[in-house]
Every structure is written in C-alpha cells, then in structure tokens.
Design goal:
The chain is mostly helical and 670 residues long. Helices cover 70% and strands 4% of the residues. It folds into 5 domains: 80 residues, Serine Threonine Protein Phosphatase 5, Tetratricopeptide repeat (Alpha Horseshoe), CATH 1.25.40.10; 203 residues, no CATH class; 95 residues, no CATH class; 107 residues, no CATH class; 122 residues. It has 30 helices and 3 strands. A 3-stranded antiparallel β-sheet has the order 2-1-3.
Length: 670
C-alpha cells in the first residue's frame, strides 16, 4: 500500500493535471490514513477543492477533519474557515512585491543587510549610516559587509512603500524556527523556513520548501499578522501608504512567495539541470497554493525565455529578407538558438501550457516564413525540407501545423522530383542500367517518404502525387532496362516495388498493365500462359441520349490474357446448352400423342378420356421443356456474371469503368 506521502503527492499531481475527480478520491485516502502531517494537509486541500466546485457541505466536513487534527497550522486555518473569519486573497501579479520577488528575497533584504530591526526609527537609520561612514574612514569594516549594499538598504527603508515590503519579508519579533503561536511568531517561522530553503537553493530539502509554503499559506489566512502590519503602517504615519496597501500586499503575497523558487526552476532548466528543475517544479506544485497561482508564478519566471525565442525569430526573418542566399544558415542559427530555450520552457511549464505552445508555434511560423523566402529565390529544397520537418515536430497548435504542412509537402515533392529527374536522365543515358537505377531511386527516396508519411495527412493530394510520380519514374527506368535487355524477371521485381509505393488508382493500374504484359499469365487462373487464347473484351462508353430516340456511344476493346483451359471453360456448353437434355421430350411425346389419337377411334375408350389423355400429355411435355430452357438460361447468366466479375477486376478495364465505361459492345436494351 502506498504511504500517505506518496498518496498525497499523487493527489497533488492529479489536481494539477485537472483530474479533480481522482484528486478528491486520493485526498480522501490520505485522510483515511490518519497520518499526523499529511492527513490534515489533505483535508485542507480537499476542502478548498470542494469549495471551488460548489460543494460547501463537503468542504465544511473536510475542514472539520483538519480542525480536529491538532496540527499547529492546518487546524487553526480550518477552524477559522469553519468560523467564517478566514478569507483567501490572491492577485495575479505581485506589483507591490514584484521588486523583491526573486531568489535574493531575503539575502538582499534591507533589514538583513543593515542589521536594523524592522521597527527602526529614522534616528536609528541615521546612526547606522554614520557608523558605516566612520568604519569606512577608519578601515574597520567587517570583511563580509558590503558598504554599497548597506547604503542602498538604508536608502530603501527611507521610502515608506518599499519599507513596508521589506518589513513583510523580515523578522518581526523573534528568530524561532517554529510557529509556536499565531501572529508575528507564525510570520517569523515562515520567513526563517523560506530563507533557509532559498539559502540552500538547489540543494534544499523538499520538506523545507513544503514547511515554508505551509507557514506562508497560514500567514495569508492569519488576520493577526495583517493587523500587525496595519499597525506598522499607522506608526509610520505616511500618506503614501495605508490600510489598502496592506490588503494589496496580502493579495499579492502567494505569488511573490512562489516566484523565487519558480525563478530557480527556470534557471536550472536553462542551464540544462533537468532533474533540479523538475524538483523545484514539483515542490511548487505541492506548495498548497492554488494551481492557477503556481502556473502564473512559473509563467512569469519563464517570460524572459519566451521573449528570447521571439527575438531570435525576428532576427532570422530580418536576415532572410536582407540576404535570401543565406536564409538556410539563418534558419539553422535560429533553430540552434531556440532549441534549449523551448526545452527549458517545456520542462518548467509543461508541453500543454499556453506559453510554451505560443512560443513553439512562433518558431514554426517564423521558420516557414524564412524558408518560403529563400526557396522562392531558387535555393536548396533539401535544407528547406529538413528545417520544415524539424519545426513540424515543434509546432503545437493545429493552425500552426496547417500553415507549415503545405510548405513541407511542397519541399518534399521537390526533393523527390530532383531525385526522379536525375534517375530518368541516367536511365536514358544507360538503359541497360535502368533496373539498378530504379532500385537505387526507390532506396534513396525512403527517408524522405518515411518523414512525409509520419507528419502529413495520407490523403493530402500533393503527397499522393509525390508517391505516384516516384513510382512511375521507377517504371520508366525499368522500361528502358527491359527494352535494352529483355530481362522479364528483373523488370517484374522492380515493378513490384514500384507498385507497393504507388497509391493512386491511375498509377497502380498503369503499373499493373505493364506487369500483366510482361508476365503473360492468364488473368483468370493466374497460372498458365495467357498468350494462347487471349480474350478481347468489348466495352462501351460516352453514351449520348441527348437526341432520343437516336442514341450514340463509343466502343473499345481490351485484350485480356487467357489460357486455352480457361477459354474451354468459358466456351463449354453442357447438355442443357446443347439441347441433348431436351431430346427425350419429343421422343417420348410423339408416341404419347399418337396413342391418344388412336384411342379416339377405339371403342373401348370414350372420346372424353382420349382427349383428356392427349391434353395431359402435351401439358406435361411442354412444362418439362420450359423448365429445361429456364435452367439453361440461368446457367448461361451465371457464367456470364462470373466472367464479367473477373473482367471488372482486370486493371485496364477497372480503370475504364472508373471513367464510366461498361462491359458490352452496346448499352443495355439497344
């Protein structure tokens, strides 16, 4: 059975992925474990999730579980929620807190650098400045002290709006690492835990990050903390800050707290430290803050990466406009530049994020623009095909793929066309090498065809035309070879490969006609020599009934290979056809009728009986004859239908039927 920690982590992952149903079920399982640390946390997260979905009764029940747990943070938070006194406040962007929301949040804190308490007076600030200047004159500065940083810190805290921000992220009363109570003690525990995690950076224990976020999450909900800060605003008595400033800071705090680790994640991803980046993202996802706030923090941390991607795209487009001859080099440079940037964004935000999708699509569209420009100037299709292939794998949205795909297919078509043109020229010059040239062509086009097949709609007309064009080029090379050598076996082997490549009906039919002509095998039995008893099938088409009752049409004949055995089968006439089966009818009928006639003059038979005998005899004879005639016609129709079905499968006839022609020398009924 999974541990409470594993279940909790999986539940957070499901919630982040939008699978709320599974997340709810997993949070319930964590609660059922009764784990002292993870069960209360799961109860709070479940309650918040139920609140967002409108299940207030379920949310109250989950909060009650957390409130009864006795957990130092979650129980107080749950109790306030049940009492209706806690309010969750979040803002999309930390505008007031943005200047400090980075990995140096505590390292560059003005009070930490100056060594002053958060309630230092203006006099304290002046005295500290004088001490710094005196130490500098006497050369008595401590080696670790940066006088420039201290002077900057003293300048910052003289601005009341910036000072109140610096106070928020420094110790208020004590330096205890544990939140032994609410208010300032809780705040100081949050500052210490978060500062320790940031000081450790990439090596910080995930538990330390989790504890810091739990403390800060509780600070957001703790009214006593914000009252303390509001009192500080009142003490500063500056009209540039007010109680509204405190409310704004409270709303901005969650994303400002997440921003430093989000920046660490982006920094690690950009440096190629994938495992470290994933660990940071995982800690953020398990922070307890809403998913949208976490996503916004990560998005802000990667803005500089997506901006660099767009800048690289603009540069490549400018270079291609200025010098199309170097367009391929400009695109290569662009792809080399953006590959690590896109990888970093994808690692931090995920492949399904809007920011990553927009950046990836921007690259795809920019490369497409550059490629079209330099190809239109007559430059290499091979480079264009490879570059478009790469960006088709990068593009995310259907719109971007739809914009790039036609260029990609066109480039591939030209690459294949150049190979075919070269093969045709060589086969014309060296016809006896035609089979080898065709085989080489079919080998050379495989990488290009495979790349097209993996990325293009199989029903794309230009793609299908490409395949058919290559197949027919191979057939042309094989035709030159056969004309020069008469080697049926080698030619047929090459035609089979060409047929496997062709997809269009016309191309396949043309290849089949050539194959059949070379094989000379009976179409019907596919075994014997088909040259001994060929069948010329008549077809009619282009029927014109516009001048009724006058009807006109055209006829055509198609030679179908057939052996003597199949001809005998087609021409065979059984006894019904020959009439021998009906011969006994007159042989038996004549005596019966004559016997009945003599009976009319025989006294022993009455006239009525004799006439009845003659009538019955004639009826029986004609009925038997009619049944035999019908059976003969039915068998003839079955043989004709079977033959027509076999003929309709013959490729040349099949192709004509697709064009509206039908078997028979004339239209039915004429």
């Amino acid at each position: 059975m999974d541990s409470a920690q594993q279940l909790f982590g999986t539940a957070v992952d499901r919630e982040a992925a939008g699978d709320l149903r599974s997340a709810k079920a997993l949070y319930g399982k964590v609660i059922d474990t009764g784990d002292e640390e993870y069960a209360p946390a799961a109860a709070v997260r479940l309650a918040r999730l139920l609140e967002t979905t409108g299940d207030l009764a379920g949310a109250r029940s989950a909060y009650r579980v957390a409130a009864d747990s006795g957990h130092p943070l979650h129980s107080r938070l749950a109790a306030r929620r049940l009492a209706g006194t806690a309010t969750r406040r979040y803002a999309a962007e930390p505008k007031l807190l943005e200047p400090v929301a980075n990995p140096d949040l505590y390292r560059r804190n003005a009070f930490r650098l100056s060594g002053l308490p958060v309630d230092a007076t203006a006099r304290d600030l002046r005295r500290r400045g004088e001490q710094l200047r005196a130490a500098e004159r006497l050369g008595a500065l401590v080696e670790e002290v940066d006088p420039g940083a201290v002077r900057e810190a003293l300048t910052l805290v003289r601005d009341p709006a910036r000072r109140i921000v610096e106070e928020l992220f420094w110790l208020w009363e004590n330096q205890s690492p544990e939140a032994s109570g609410g208010g300032p003690a809780l705040h100081d525990a949050a500052v210490l835990a978060h500062a320790q995690a940031l000081d450790a950076g990439d090596d910080a224990d995930p538990a330390l990050w989790r504890r810091a976020y739990e403390y800060w999450g509780a600070v957001v909900e703790e009214a006593e903390c914000w009252q303390w800060l509001a009192d500080r605003v009142a003490q500063l008595a500056d009209r540039r800050i007010s109680g509204q400033t405190v409310e704004t800071m409270r709303a901005e705090l969650p994303r400002a707290v997440l921003a430093p680790q989000a920046a660490l994640a982006a920094r690690a991803a950009e440096a190629g430290a994938d495992d470290i980046a994933r660990a940071h993202v995982e800690s953020l996802r398990r922070s307890g803050f809403p998913i949208d706030v976490i996503t916004e923090a990560l998005g802000a941390a990667t803005k500089h990466l997506t901006a660099r991607v767009r800048s690289a795209c603009r540069k490549a487009e400018r270079l291609t406009v200025a010098d199309p001859e170097d367009g391929a080099d400009a695109v290569d440079a662009l792809l080399d530049k953006v590959e690590p940037l896109l990888k970093a964004v994808r690692l931090v935000l995920g492949e399904n994020s809007n920011a990553y999708g927009a950046a990836a699509d921007a690259v795809a569209l920019s490369v497409n623009t550059c490629v079209v420009r330099y190809v239109n100037e007559g430059h290499d299709f091979g480079d264009a095909f490879e570059q478009l292939e790469e960006v088709l794998d990068i593009a995310i949205s259907p719109q971007a793929r739809a914009a790039v795909e036609p260029s990609y297919v066109a480039a591939g078509s030209n690459v294949l066309g150049e190979l075919c043109e070269d093969a045709a020229d060589r086969a014309t010059a060296l016809p006896e090498e035609g089979a080898r040239i065709a085989e080489s062509l079919l080998d050379e086009i495989q990488p290009t065809v495979a790349a097209l097949a993996a990325r293009v709609d199989p029903d794309d007309p230009l793609y299908r035309e490409c395949l058919d064009g290559v197949a027919l080029c191979a057939v042309s090379c094989l035709g030159s070879f056969h004309g020069a050598t008469g080697d049926d076996e080698t030619t047929l082997a090459g035609l089979s490969r060409a047929l496997d490549l062709a997809v269009g009906g016309e191309a396949r039919s043309a290849i089949e006609v050539v194959r059949i002509g070379l094989r000379s095998v009976c179409w019907f039995c596919q075994a014997e020599d088909g040259r001994t008893a060929v069948l010329e099938a008549a077809l009619h088409g282009e029927v014109d009934r516009s001048e009724l009752p006058r009807v006109t049409w055209k006829t055509a004949g198609v030679v179908v290979p057939r052996c003597t055995g199949c001809r005998a089968a087609h021409d065979r006439r059984d006894r019904l056809d020959s009439g021998w089966a009906a011969a006994p009818i007159p042989v038996l009928g004549v005596p019966l009728v004559l016997g009945g006639t003599f009976a009319l003059f025989d006294a022993e038979f009455g006239p009525f009986s004799a006439l009845l005998f003659v009538f019955v005899s004639v009826f029986v004879l004609f009925s038997a004859y009619g049944a035999l005639v019908n059976a003969r016609q039915r068998r003839a129709e079955e043989r004709r239908a079977h033959l027509n079905a076999a003929l309709s499968r013959f490729p040349p006839i099949q192709q004509l039927e697709l064009l509206g022609w039908r078997l028979g020398a004339r239209p039915p009924g004429l």
